[in-house]
Structures are given as structure tokens and as C-alpha cells.
# Entry
Amino acid sequence: MKILIIEDDPLHRVYLRDAITEALPECDLVIEADNGLAGEKLAREHTATHIVMDLQMSTRTGIEAARTIWRERPETAILFWSNYSDEAYVRGVSRIVPEGAAYGYVLKTASEGRLKLALRGIFIEGQCVIDREVRGLQQKSLGQRGGFTDSEYEVLVDIALGLTDRAIARRRNLSLRSVQNRLQQLYEKLDIYRATSPEADTATYNLRARAVSVALLRKLLNVSALEQAEVELGDWMTRR
Amino acid sequence: MKILIIEDDPLHRVYLRDAITEALPECDLVIEADNGLAGEKLAREHTATHIVMDLQMSTRTGIEAARTIWRERPETAILFWSNYSDEAYVRGVSRIVPEGAAYGYVLKTASEGRLKLALRGIFIEGQCVIDREVRGLQQKSLGQRGGFTDSEYEVLVDIALGLTDRAIARRRNLSLRSVQNRLQQLYEKLDIYRATSPEADTATYNLRARAVSVALLRKLLNVSALEQAEVELGDWMTRR
DNA sequence: CAATGAAGTGCGGGAAACCGCAATATGTGG
DNA sequence: CCACATATTGCGGTTTCCCGCACTTCATTG
# Structure
């Protein structure tokens, strides 16, 4: 059994390697890559089917690497081992996981025991192992209560990129008014109103800018999701 | 000689401890804190004058911790050991360093040799040791060329928080028009114009939203700087 | 099939953002 | 003191944002 580690912090890499050899004696080979791109390459060369990776790497995000790897071999088991439980990451992962693939999401703050348990669960038992902290987000983001629909998330990203209502309408094939409707729902759910307390003589917040701000502060968005969206936007702009 | 480590990642903590004991045999005591708040407390109790800390911690940012520590004892030598060289961090640090204090800024990607050299330079020789990658930013941010003045940076933060022009004017004691002028300079420097290529029939970007976006993408702003600014804004709002 | 509800669209208007122009500080060096 | 650059302010006007209101789809359900 062969396991591929994709992780850019060398300290975390040796920690992972140790945890793996202890938790999985049936593993006889551990390969390592220190960025997403190299990870994709190694996965292809070794036809790796068991991978542990960080999200948030320089040359290629974990999400991106996982997507191309899963596109080539959807049965690959991947454990995401990440510092953060931002909604943007969780949403990004659950958006790309193929039907029936075994995967996991555990935080780096988890104990060594939890990590080892997840390793066995995913790679031996073929289960999905998701940390409780992350699980909470996942529920919320897919279910209704307080969560966001995909279309709301879309406009959130679009205004975060700085697009005008009109540009969003063009991009998403909607009327201007529909875009504005979605924005209003978004403002509603983000609770942008309730803004300032005392004399409401003049508004203190620009709604769209404020929405981006609170989305960032509440970890609904993060910068690497933004980077991703930026290149997608670039594609779209040149394509037309 | 006593050294205080403030760092939330346990792996990095032991790595640091090892590097310190190897590079500084004259050091006979190493104390550790795993967040900024605990770090402040330990610094006070031990009257620590030699500190190595991470920026980017949960309970209290490195910047915040350093500020209170330096306020109490400005001659403290602090080495910032960070993952990122975002302009927001560099600007934050150089904003709070007291006159004549020894400090350093080295990236976690630096070799162990560089780290040890910095440790000796700062704690023994009383020098300032700043990594080249960081140095570049520092030049740019303080000097003119392409850099931002403090007032431009201020409005950048304000629009990132979602404030309206009027609200910014009130907060900074300026006229509405002055705020708008600063914004235009900001847009100029961020190169927001040059935006879309072919048919400029309608604008594709909302300037203020786009400005925040590119500032984030170019690491002129980051989320923890935003969080910081958000609480300052909260203070200001209640105070009036 | 009628009823209910959710999402999209058009119209209209008030508020904010964006910006050119010009007058007035403020300040720095000769 | 004057000359010059820089920053601030006011005015006016266009564009975009924000949103209430009314109408249309379209799907779900009893």
C-alpha cells in the first residue's frame, strides 16, 4: 500500500509521515510532494490511490489538485488535512468530491489520535471521516437554515470580485433586476441591515462592500477562493 | 538569558525551541505560549526582553501582542517569524516598532541557518534582521514608487470594511470630496482602470468593490488586518 | 385544475458613487 | 516674500446601486 503526501510545510510533512507509518503498518511506501502541482504529477506517475493533502498551497491549491486527480481517477481516497474550517474551503471540497469516493476532512488542530483514526477509516475502511467542526459547516451550507443557496454564493463571489450588477447579469445570463434580487437576499441573510444603531440620518455602510467584508470576517469567503474565482472570471472574459 | 516563544503551532514551537538552544547556547531558559494573549501575560510575568513570535494567532494577533508588550517595555527585542510577507503584515509591524528597538522579520520558509543567524543578530548583537523578501515590501510601502501613503491605506481599509464615503468622511474628519479624491488616487495606484478590454459600452467593475478585491489578491490587505480594523471601527462607533 | 409559493422580469425613483472643474488652504524651498 | 507643489473643499452632473411595486413563469401539491 502506497500513500502520497501533498503538503508544503516540511515540519507538517514529517509529522504526517510519522503518523502514517504508525497508524498504517500495511503502508510500505510514502511519497511526498511539497505543492499541488508536483502532487498531481506524482499521483499520475505512481497511480496513487491514497492521498493526504493540505489545502492552501502556493503553486496549486489542494482543491485544484484534488479536482484534477479525481477527474483522472475518481476512486482515489483523499484526506484533506487543513488549518482552517472556512465555509469557502468546505464548500469547495464538497463541490468536487465524486460520487461514492472516500474522503476526509480533519483539522490540523486535531489530536494525533483523531488523525490516525481518520487515516484508517478512510484508507482501510473506505469511510468518509469529517471532523465535527467541519461537519457543522457542511450541514449549514447545504441545508437551508441560515445557509446560502448556490446562486446566492455565486453573486457573493461576483461582487467580491468587484463586478457591477450589469456584468453579473451578463455573466450569469440574468436580468439586471434578478441580480439585484439575489443581492437583496444575500444582504438579508448576512444581516447587513441592522447595521448602525442610533441616529440613522445617513447610511454608514455601502451594502455590497459591507457584504464582502462580513463574508470575509465570517469565513464564508476566503482569499484563496477569491483567487480561484478571479482566474475563472479571467477565462470567461477572454472566451467571449 | 531567557527567551519567550509565542507560536500556536506545536510543531513549529518545538522546531523553534531546538533552533534557539542550538543557536544560542547562552540561553538557559525557554518559555512558550501558544497564543498572543498568553504571550503577553508570560512576557509581563517574566519581564521577558527576548521574544520570538508568530503573527497570525487565534486569540491575539502577533501585531497586537507586540504592541502591548512594546508599550510596557519598549526595549524588548522581538523576532517575528511568519508564514507570509503580505504588505498588510509588514506595514502593521513597522507601524508599531518603537524607536531604536531591535527586531526582526524572517519567513518560515527561510532555512534553519538564516533563522539561527537572525536569532543571534537580534538577541546578541541588537541588530535588526529583515528577510530580503520582506525588505522589498518595506521599501515599497514606505517609499513612493507604487507604494501607498498612509491616508490611501486608510481609505482602502475603510472601504474594505464597507463604509460609505460619507461615513469615512465623518470618521476621518474630512469633506466628502476629499474622501473621493483619496479613493481616486487609490484606484489609480491599484490600476483599477485599464479594467476591461474591448467594447467599453458599460463598466464591468464597481470601482470600490474591485479595489478591495485586487488589494486582497495582491496581499496589500489580508483578513486579519480586516479583523483588526473591524474592532477599531467598533470602538469608534460606540465612542461617539 | 386551482392554489400556493418561489424565482425572474420590467418600471420608476431616491440615494450613493464617481469624477471634471475650479477655488482655496497648507507647506516647502528659493 | 513669492513661487510652486500638494491637499482640501465645493459645485454640478452622469452612472450605478438599492429597492418598492406589479406582473409573469414555472414547479409543486392537494
Summary: Chain B has two domains: 2-142, 150-239. Residues 164-166, 180-181, 183-184, 187, 206-208 of chain B lie near DNA strand C (CB under 10 Å from a C1'). The radius of gyration of chain B is 20 Å.
